[in-house]
Design brief:
Length: 321
């Protein structure tokens, strides 16, 4: 038997209930892993609330680290006992979870289980943002929001390794200290941030804004860009951006807006391997510090969702079975 979080209806965090059922069985090309830690991400709050449609009963979670305990037919790359992680599993809010072998990442010995659970989604997100959505070059100036969040802290570190000047926004003094510890050059509050960005860039604006906040920061993000700058809108923590007139991009400086998602940047095994290897290697070498901001027992998934949505957390939020 296996315990898992199961929701039988959509709604608030209270719909996330601990339940017991049969241990999953891997099919052809799949692995069964014993979950060491599962990542909690905003997409699961959208699924739970009904903003993103899922069929119930439903066990949330796509990100986890763990150990392979059973190998499905046809799998050759992994054996029982292998340490693995994924951002593309299913039902990872559980003691045991199914992962497609082709979407599984080997974990280096030097990377602990919790760091391995924290890196796949947010680490590979940060990787595609600065390498593929808008490739940042040394000397460019970047604004990234939510600098003390899971993606934000990784983004700041990767951007500094790239040689960029990094401006970021946070909401509290504690979060400011975290962002500065990660290497941010300038840390701003959200109120009036666009004008502060202009002041810090002698009126020019930044080359790119990485915006995972959405509705509350979108207009300010556009106003922070230089001529021909790009806004990479990769999330909506404050809610989705309302429809807007594309003509606004013209007088603002021929701006570019893109709305990417991780799955479109993991299109083949080679791309997945490239992103994962660079992120895990940076963590193993000590170049990338992975902050675990909060750990919750599996049974407390509802509290984890509440705290994440209330922006009470920093760094990565994990469930530990």
């Amino acid at each position: 038997m296996s315990q898992a979080i199961v929701m039988t209806e959509t709604g608030g965090p209270e719909v996330l209930k601990l339940a017991e059922g049969p241990r999953p069985k891997p099919g052809p090309g799949e692995l069964l892993i014993k979950v060491a830690a599962a990542g909690v991400n905003f997409i699961e709050t959208y699924q739970r609330s009904g903003a993103y449609k899922v069929a119930v009963p439903f066990t949330p979670g796509a990100e986890a680290s763990g150990t392979v305990v059973e190998v499905g037919e046809g799998v050759q790359d992994y054996a029982v006992g292998a340490r693995v992680a994924t951002a593309e599993g299913r039902g990872t809010y559980a003691e045991f979870a199914i992962v497609e072998a082709a979407r599984t990442l080997p974990v280096p010995d030097a990377v602990p289980d919790e760091a391995a659970a924290a890196l796949p989604l947010q680490g590979m997100t940060a990787h595609y943002l600065i390498n593929s959505s808008f490739r940042v070059e040394p000397g460019q100036t970047v604004l990234t929001h939510a600098g003390a969040g899971g993606v934000g802290l990784l983004l700041i570190q990767l951007l500094k390794l790239r040689g960029a000047r990094v401006l970021t926004t946070v909401s509290t003094d504690e979060k400011e200290q975290l962002a500065r510890s990660a290497g941010a050059d300038e840390v701003l509050r959200y109120d009036g941030f666009a004008q502060k960005v202009r002041d810090l860039t002698d009126g020019t604006g930044v080359d790119v804004v990485y915006d995972g906040v959405g509705k509350d920061t979108f207009d300010g993000s556009l106003a922070s860009l230089r001529i021909r700058g790009m806004l990479v809108l990769y999330g909506a923590a404050s809610g989705p951006v309302p429809p807007f007139d594309l003509q606004r991009l013209n007088p603002s400086g021929s701006l570019i807006v893109t709305r990417p998602t991780l799955v479109h940047f993991l299109q083949n095994p080679q791309e997945r391997r490239w992103r994962a290897q660079e992120i895990f290697t940076a963590a193993a070498d000590g170049k990338l510090d992975v902050r675990i901001g909060a750990r919750y027992p599996l049974a407390d998934a509802a509290q984890a969702h509440s705290d994440l949505q209330a922006r009470k957390t920093t760094g990565k939020v994990l469930l530990v079975p």
